[in-house]
């Protein structure tokens, strides 16, 4: 079992097609939340709108800077396993262009930036 089986790379919207069926971590601004809490749209740092489908309806308000970990279902959709909503202060201080650059660097040099996950014996 390799570490690749357990990592959840940070990606942007345009990278989703490269990770179909795999788990990723996606960060962006939440909008258009379904009234039943079943889905919402996440606008990523590269200005892609990604539909986030919940496994269970949301229990808390989702808005502003939001991180979603889940499985890529298509080039524009992700099935969420975990959602983290950041504070208004964190949202206001977030530098989207710097984050976009970090995504680009981590994709060019994946061996130098291992992203979340663990290996079980």
TrEMBL record:
Write down the InterPro entries for this protein, in alphabetical order. Answer: NA-bd_OB-fold, Rfa2
Q: Which SUPFAM superfamilies match?
A: Nucleic acid-binding proteins (SSF50249)
Origin, by domain of life?
Eukaryota
| Short name of any one Pfam family annotated for the protein | Rep_fac-A_3
Q: What is its main location?
A: nucleus
Q: Where are the transmembrane segments?
A: none
The cross-references to Gene3D superfamilies, in alphabetical order and at most eight, read: Nucleic acid-binding proteins
Supply the alphabetized keyword list. Answer: Nucleus
Q: Where does the signal peptide begin and end?
A: none
Report the subcellular localization: Nucleus
The record's section on PANTHER family has: REPLICATION PROTEIN A 14 KDA SUBUNIT, REPLICATION PROTEIN A3
Q: Which family does it belong to?
A: Belongs to the replication factor A protein 3 family.
Name this polypeptide is given: Uncharacterized protein LOC101852861
Q: Which organism is it from?
A: Aplysia californica
């Amino acid at each position: 079992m390799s570490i690749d089986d357990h990592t959840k790379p940070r990606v942007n919207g345009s990278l989703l097609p490269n990770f179909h069926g795999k788990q990723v971590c996606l960060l962006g601004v939440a909008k258009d939340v379904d009234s039943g809490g079943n889905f919402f749209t996440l606008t990523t740092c590269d200005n892609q709108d990604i539909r986030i489908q919940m496994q269970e309806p949301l229990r808390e308000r989702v808005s502003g800077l939001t991180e979603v970990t889940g499985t890529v279902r298509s080039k524009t959709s992700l099935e969420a396993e975990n959602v983290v909503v950041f504070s208004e202060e964190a949202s206001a201080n977030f530098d989207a262009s710097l984050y976009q650059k970090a995504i680009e660097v981590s994709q060019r040099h994946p061996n130098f930036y291992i992203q979340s996950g663990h290996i079980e014996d």
